[in-house]
Amino acid sequence: MPATPLAVSIPTALGEMPGRQWLPAAGRGPGIVLFQEIFGISPYVERRAAELAAAGYVVLAPELYWRQGISGIANGPDMLGEGLAALQQLDWDAAVRDGLAAHAWLRSRPEVTDTTGYVGFCFGGGLAFAVAAQADPKPDALVSYYGSALPNLLDLAPQVPMPSLHHFGDEDAYIDRETVERIRSAVAGPDVEFYTYPGADHAFDNADFVTYHPEASTIAWGLTLKFLATHLPT
After folding, report:
1. What does the UniProt keyword field contain (predicted)?
2. For residues 57 and 60, what is the distance between their CA atoms, to the nearest angstrom?
3. Distance separating alpha carbons of residues 70 and 86, to the nearest angstrom
4. Is residue 124 part of a domain?
């Protein structure tokens, strides 16, 4: 498994956005833009990116807090407070444009084969959905883990026609079950997979956070890899 990502620079209208790229052992493969959670490019995000690269994907994680001078937020007792503070300073529209720039950059890379997809966690799960709505061409697949912004983005669902996979915990403290069902109804389609996990809270996939749920995380990650293998075959 690749241990060290490559530092890359992604051109945007307002400057060069830093990012990190992981390459699969073969050196080439389908591309995945990985959209961070509120903690930036954290050790957890790096681990997931490396695991996707090990599965055969070229992975790009743009540093979406770059305008604030933040890369990742260290694990610690106040990581939630620091993450929320960073998110409050974020310009959402600028972040969507940054996501589009990251997609365009990744598609242009010679190591990326024909298809690209998005994987996003928490804040990044909603942002990936918003970017997919505006992308041209569209990504070939989307995976969203408990997208925190999704309840306010459902009017974009008709613009997100690609195969998608959504994960939510049944005990999510930020997105109640009624809202989850509203999301399920809005995004429903023949190529949409939607799973909920008993006993799991928000951020259940992050092993560095207090709400980590090992069973839900393991099942959801297995389903993610299976979904990606179907729609972004390596």
Report:
1. Hydrolase
2. 10
3. 8
4. yes
1 inside domain: no
CATH value at residue 63: 3.40.50.1820
Rounded-to-integer distance, Cα 176 and Cα 185, Å: 15
DSSP string for 121-187: ETHHHHHHHHHHHH-SSPPSEEEEES-TTGGGTGGGGGG--S-EEEEEETT-SSS-HHHHHHHHHHH
- Close Cβ partners of 3 (under 8 Å, ≥ 6 residues apart): 50
Q: Which two tokens stand for residue 182?
A: 């509203």
Write phi, then psi, for 108 (nearest 5 degrees).
Answer: -80, -10
How many separate helices (H) and strands (E) can be counted in the chain? 6, 8
Beta bridge partners of 11: 16
Cβ-proximal residues to 170 (8 Å cutoff; 6+ apart), any chain: 177, 196, 197, 198, 199, 200
Q: Does residue 22 belong to any structural domain of this protein?
A: yes
- Taking a C-beta distance cutoff of 8 angstroms, is the pair 231, 138 a contact? no
User: Per-10-residue mean pLDDT for the chain, 234 residues long?
Assistant: 80 94 96 95 95 97 90 73 80 96 98 96 97 98 97 98 98 97 97 98 95 98 98 97
Total number of domains constituting the chain:
1
Domain limits for position 15: 6-231
Distance in angstroms (rounded) separating the CA atoms of residues 185 and 180 = 9
Please check whether residue 87 lies inside any domain of the structure: yes
- Most distant CA atoms of the chain, gap in Å: 44
